[in-house]
Design goal:
single chain, mainly alpha, Arc Repressor Mutant, subunit A, Four Helix Bundle (Hemerythrin (Met), subunit A), 10 helices, elongated
C-alpha cells in the first residue's frame, strides 16, 4: 500500500495520506512500539513523494503523540500503552462534536428519504446504487475515494426520492457529512480498518436490498440503524475523550 505520487496533487493531501497510512500501520501492529520508522529517503522512494511531504507527515504524527524523533538516531513509534486521548488534538474533538450534530440532522432527513426512494426508485436508480456499492467493495479503493463513494451513495438515494429539497440539502452539505472523510473512524471506534469497512458495506447493502424490494419501512429501518450506529460510536468517543 502506498500514497499516490506528487504529480498535480496538493502537498497537504499527500502528507495527510502518508500520515494516515503510517497511523494505520501503527494501530494494526505492523509498526510496533519502539520500532524505528524507515528513513526519509526510504519513505520518499517507497511512496513516490517529496522530502517536504514526508517531513509534514512526520510532524503530524509527532503532534499526535504517535512517534518521537531521537536526534541523530531516527524516528521511533511510541509505546502502544498510550490512551486514545493522547492521539486526539482539540481540532479533532471539534470535528467529532460537529459530526455528531450533522449525524442527528441526517437521521431526520435520510431515514425518510430511504423510505421514499423504496417507493419511487427506477431501474436506473437501482443500477446507480448497485454500481456504487460494487466500487465500495473493492479493497484497492483509497480512503478519500471511499468517503466520496459513500457520500455519492447517500446522495443518490436522496436524488431518487424525486424531492429536490432533500437532494439539494444533502448536496449542499457535501462529503463532510461522512465521518470518515474528516476522521480516522476505524481507529476512533476501536475497530480494525478491514472490519470497519466490511461493516459499513454490509449496512449499505441492507439499505439497498430494502430499496430493491420496494419495502419503505425496511428501508427506513436500515437507514436509521446505519446512521444511529455511527452516531452512537461518535458519542462514545466524545464521552471517552471528555472523561479523559
Amino acid at each position: 500500500m502506498s500514497v499516490p505520487a506528487d504529480g498535480g496533487k496538493k502537498r497537504g493531501s499527500l502528507s495527510q495520506g502518508l500520515e494516515a497510512l503510517l497511523s494505520e500501520h501503527i494501530f494494526e501492529g505492523r509498526l510496533r512500539g519502539g520500532e524505528k520508522l524507515p528513513t526519509e529517503a526510504a519513505l520518499m522512494l517507497e511512496h513516490g513523494v517529496s522530502r517536504t511531504v514526508v517531513r509534514e507527515a512526520m510532524s503530524r504524527l509527532q503532534a499526535a503523540g504517535m512517534v518521537e524523533t531521537r536526534h541523530g538516531i531516527g524516528t521511533f513509534v511510541r509505546g502502544s500503552a498510550l490512551s486514545l486521548g493522547a492521539f486526539i488534538d482539540p481540532t479533532t474533538i471539534g470535528i467529532i462534536i460537529d459530526s455528531l450534530a450533522i449525524m442527528e440532522f441526517r437521521i431526520g432527513l435520510e431515514v425518510e428519504a430511504a423510505g421514499l426512494t423504496a417507493q419511487r426508485r427506477t431501474p436506473d436508480h437501482l443500477s446507480e446504487l448497485r454500481a456504487l456499492l460494487d466500487q465500495l467493495g473493492q479493497p484497492a479503493v483509497s480512503v478519500n475515494d471511499r468517503a466520496a463513494l459513500d457520500f455519492q451513495f447517500h446522495l443518490s438515494i436522496a436524488q431518487a426520492t424525486g424531492n429536490h429539497y432533500i437532494a439539494n440539502t444533502l448536496r449542499n452539505l457535501g462529503v463532510v457529512i461522512i465521518p470518515r472523510s474528516r476522521l480516522d473512524s476505524a481507529r476512533l471506534f476501536h475497530d480494525e480498518p478491514l472490519h470497519y469497512e466490511q461493516r459499513m458495506l454490509s449496512e449499505h447493502e441492507q439499505i439497498y436490498e430494502a430499496i430493491l424490494n420496494q419495502d419503505p419501512e425496511c428501508a427506513r429501518a436500515a437507514m436509521r440503524l446505519h446512521l444511529h450506529d455511527s452516531r452512537e460510536h461518535l458519542h462514545q468517543v466524545h464521552e471517552e475523550l471528555e472523561g479523559g
